[in-house]
C-alpha cells in the first residue's frame, strides 16, 4: 500500500468574478468547492492508476466533513485523525483576464493529544505500507521538524519515504535522508539560497543531495521537464509540447506517478517516463491533481529519458 500524508488538507474554493476591486462588494458568477491538498492529489492519482493508496492527516469541523464525503465519492481510501478545530479553506479568484488570485488560510491549530493520536495511527498504518509519501504544508502549531520525525519513524521499519514540500519543512526533512525529493525550481533555489541557471547547476545540486544520503532526486522544471539523479546516475527528461489547460498540481501528479512506479518495481527509466507522463496528463485536465490513464500511456511513448 502507498501511504500518503496530507497534514494540512483544505477545501479549495474557486470563484469566477469580473474583477477585484479593493473596498467594493464583488459578486461571484460561480463557485466550485473541491477537496484540496497536495497529498490528496497524490492519493487520487495513485488510486486512478489502480494502486492501493490511503491518505491520512487531520480533518476537523464542517470543512473536514466535506472533505471526508468527497474522498468517499472519489473512492479514495482515507483514515484521518478527527480534530477539534476546523480544516482550512483556500480561496482562488479567477478574474475576467484569467488571472488567478489566491488566499491560503494557515490551517487549524492542533490541540493537546491530537499529534499523538496521529503518530499512533501513522505507526499502525505504516506496517501495511511499502512506501510513504508526504506532500505539502502542515498545521499552524506543528514543528517544522515534523517530516524529519516521520521519516525517522519510516526508516525504523525500512519503508521508502518520498518528501514533496518546501521551505524549512524540506530543509529539515532532508536531514533525515528521505529516499526521494522533488523540488521544483523555486523550491531548490530557496533551499540552496541562490539561483540555478544551467543544467550543470542542477546536476551539481543533485550531487550534493546524493552526498547527504538522498538516493533519488528530481528537480522539476514545469514544461521543460526535469533533471533527475538516481544512485549517482543522472537523467534529463524531456516532455512533449502540449496545450496547457491547468498546470497546477502537475508536481503532485508526478509524485503520484513516482510512487506507483516504485510500487510496481519499474526500472528507473520507466519510473521517470511514467511519472513525467502523469505530470503532463494533469496539465491537460481542468481539475487539479488528476490524471487520465489513456493519456498517461500515450504521453509515456513521447517522453524522452536521456542518460547523461
Ligand atoms: N506545461 C507543461 N507541459 C508538459 N508537462 C508539464 C508541464 N508542466 C508540468 N509538466 C510535467 O509535470 C512535472 C512537474 O511539474 P512542475 O515542475 O510544474 O511541478 P510543481 O511546480 O511541483 O507543481 P505543483 O506544486 O503545482 O504540483 C514536470 O517535470 C513535467 O514533467
Ligand atoms: Mg510541487
UniProtKB/TrEMBL annotation:
The keyword ATP-binding applies. Keywords: ATP-binding, Kinase, Lactose metabolism, Nucleotide-binding, Transferase. Coiled coil: none annotated. It is an enzyme of class 2 (transferase). It catalyses: D-tagatofuranose 6-phosphate + ATP = D-tagatofuranose 1,6-bisphosphate + ADP + H(+). Its EC number is 2.7.1.144. Pathway: Carbohydrate metabolism; D-tagatose 6-phosphate degradation; D-glyceraldehyde 3-phosphate and glycerone phosphate from D-tagatose 6-phosphate: step 1/2. InterPro entries: Carboh/pur_kinase_PfkB_CS, PfkB_dom, Ribokinase-like, Tagatose/fructose_Pkinase. Residues 11-290 form the Carbohydrate kinase PfkB domain. It comes from the Bacteria. SUPFAM superfamilies: Ribokinase-like. NCBIfam families: 1-PFK. PANTHER family: 1-PHOSPHOFRUCTOKINASE, 1-PHOSPHOFRUCTOKINASE-RELATED. Belongs to the carbohydrate kinase pfkB family. Belongs to the carbohydrate kinase PfkB family. LacC subfamily. This is Tagatose-6-phosphate kinase.
